[in-house]
Specification:
The complex is a heterodimer. Chain A is of the alpha/beta class. Chain A contains eleven helices and 26 strands. In chain A, helix 1 packs parallel to helix 8. The longest helix of chain A is centred in the C-terminal third of the chain and has 15 residues. By secondary structure, chain B is α+β, with helices and mostly antiparallel strands. Chain B has two domains: 83 residues, Alpha-Beta Plaits (2-Layer Sandwich); 54 residues, Alpha-Beta Plaits (2-Layer Sandwich). Classes of the chains: A alpha/beta, B alpha+beta. Chains A and B meet through helix 8, strand 22, strand 23, helix 9 and helix 11 of A and strand 1, helix 3 and helix 4 of B.
Chain lengths: 411, 145
């Protein structure tokens, strides 16, 4: 019997799911329910678009014939409102019921907007999650615009970088006492902040908007910040409601196992809407990064098609640049720390239980993937020349036998 | 699928492969014009210590984590070769963050580049292999997918 695959969402996890399914099943019918009216695109590139470093054509994630080639049908501008597990259908807003044999929820996340007093009085305000958000923001930007960005996380700061050269001023505020508080410790965050301030971005940290009055933000710290364009980048929440209402288990995200199975029969989940195991910390968490979305989506697809795939090496990791300064982080900052500083770089490695648990690299990121692979693969530090590895990420620090295996053996 | 392999025991750490790579990918026909007095950005590099050395280039992995992680959809695998669309690359370095071999590095402008086995440049076959004076680098089929 030909399977009917349905995927809710049309981001990278969804594309990966299509590719996972097609690696095992050429024939099954695939239906994608896409709220956004765009073919799958590279969501993290929206700030690069505003910066002029890419354009709409290059933001396409896959080739123009992608859906034709994969035989996936996309329902654009349609919204899933209910998963009916009893008859295995997805109900759309317009009342249509789409039957599934296997369903993947790849619904992503939504911006979280705290109830700021007076927010409704602000006329020109945006989120910064989707291409449509970026296009709407672009329309509002003028050379003299004074932009206030609430949130100094990855989204808020990439937005700041993307628009800085196009506007009069950019101010960023955050309740946290440092920038990028989800991935950087205080010292590293200070370096990034200094670099951003040197470009002309102004910060109010450890501070919050007490209330808005039209185009003015009154900070709890006492400052008064006039602006004409507001970007809300406080945080995101996983889109879990559909699965929760269908009786599936959700935490901060949809709970999935290492095969991307949810607790509900024939329902899988992948990407930013999920909560899986962080193998570096051993604790479940939402890891809302593109590589994770792809690997989860592909794994889900393979399993949905009846073959077997496991993804049990998920770790948080980010590579992010701001005005030429590159920051890389992976794993968790737990345990003993090794540090190296130069004039323009900072390296912090974190070790515990004979394992590399995490790192932060600012500048100096050559071959950093060797460190990342050691976290993912849980390479015992006692099995490698870690004194050499601390100084530079190199496979020369691995035992010859392991290295030869990695590189394909000897002649 | 033929790949580039290196025999550590034969590698002399002469770095000629790096120069041959940079020349093959320079688009120029004169090696002096291509390389003399310039910083080079090869897609293969010699690693090692005082005891052992070996050249590292893309392994064209069966399950390529760089392709899966690329935030710009710039990396893809076609006919066994991992290629980069440099027009799509935004220089985020996520591929550097994930490649377990340390096989990717940016060019002078911060755009990523990688070994594509010289299939699309004037060399037509891996220049690192062709120019290796001790035949430490080989291009052959070893049965990997």
């Amino acid at each position: 019997m030909m399977k009917k695959y349905v995927i809710i969402g049309n981001g990278v996890a969804s594309a990966a799911c299509i590719e996972g399914i097609r690696s095992a099943d050429r024939d099954g019918r695939i239906t994608v329910i896409s709220e956004e009216k765009h073919e799958v695109y590279c969501r993290p590139l929206i700030s690069y678009y505003l910066e002029g470093k890419t354009d709409l054509a290059h933001m396409r994630y896959r080739s123009e014939d992608y859906y034709e080639r994969t035989g996936a049908e996309v329902l654009y501008g349609r919204k899933a409102v209910r998963i009916r597990t009893a008859d295995q259908t997805v109900e759309l807003e317009d009342g249509t019921h789409i039957p599934y044999t296997e369903l993947c929820v790849a619904a992503g996340s939504s911006p979280f907007v705290p109830p700021f007093a007076g927010l409704s009085s602000v006329k020109t305000k945006f989120s910064f999650m989707t291409l449509d958000d970026a296009l709407a923001l672009e329309k509002a930007l003028k050379p003299e615009s004074r932009v206030l960005i609430v949130g100094a996380g990855l989204i808020g700061l990439k937005c700041a970088e993307g628009i800085l050269k196009r506007v009069g001023s950019v101010t960023v505020c955050d309740l946290a006492d440092r920038v990028l508080s989800s991935i950087l410790d205080a010292d590293c965050a200070a370096l990034v902040q200094q670099h951003l301030e040197a470009q002309g971005i102004r910060f109010f940290l450890n501070d919050s908007v007490g209330h808005f009055e039209e185009n003015t933000a009154y900070m709890t710290g006492g400052a008064v910040v006039p602006f004409d364009t507001l970007v809300l980048a406080v945080g995101v929440r996983a889109n879990t409601a559909l699965l929760k209402e269908a009786g599936g288990e959700v935490g901060r995200g949809i709970v999935v196992d290492e095969r991307m199975r949810t607790s509900a029969d024939h329902i899988w989940a992948a990407g930013d809407c999920t909560e899986g195991m962080d193998s570096s910390s051993g604790r479940p968490r939402v890891i809302a990064i593109l590589p994770n979305a792809y690997m989860q989506g592909f794994t889900a697809g393979v399993n949905m098609a009846g073959e077997s795939a496991v993804f049990d090496q998920a770790i948080p990791m980010n590579s992010i640049g701001f005005f030429g300064m590159h920051v890389m982080t992976a794993g968790v900052c737990e345990g003993e720390m090794y540090e190296e500083r130069t004039a323009d770089s900072l390296k912090r490695l974190f070790m515990k239980d004979d394992l590399l648990k995490g790192f932060i690299l600012i500048g100096g990121n050559e071959r950093a993937g060797i460190y990342t692979s050691m976290i993912r693969e849980k390479t015992p530090l006692s099995s490698v020349n870690f004194d050499l590895l601390k100084q530079a990420a190199t496979t020369a620090a691995f035992p010859a036998e392991i290295r030869r295996k990695k590189f394909g053996g000897v002649v | 699928m033929k790949r580039v392999y290196v025999n550590e025991a034969w590698c002399l750490a002469c770095h000629l492969c790096e120069y041959n790579c940079a020349f093959a990918n320079s688009g120029l026909s004169d090696m002096v014009l291509a390389l003399k007095g310039k910083s080079i950005y090869p897609r293969i590099h010699v690693e090692g210590d005082e005891k052992i050395s070996y050249a590292v280039s893309c392994r064209h992995c069966e399950d390529p984590i760089c392709v899966r992680s690329c935030i710009a959809g710039a990396l893809s695998k076609e006919d066994g070769v991992i290629r980069i669309d440099r027009e799509k690359c935004v220089g985020c370095f996520t591929c550097i963050l994930v490649c377990p071999y340390g096989a990717l590095a940016p060019d002078k402008d911060g755009v990523m580049q990688k070994c594509e086995l010289c299939l699309q440049n004037s060399s037509g076959e891996p220049a690192c292999v062709k120019g290796c004076p001790n035949r430490a680098i080989v291009y052959e089929e070893r049965g990997e997918a």
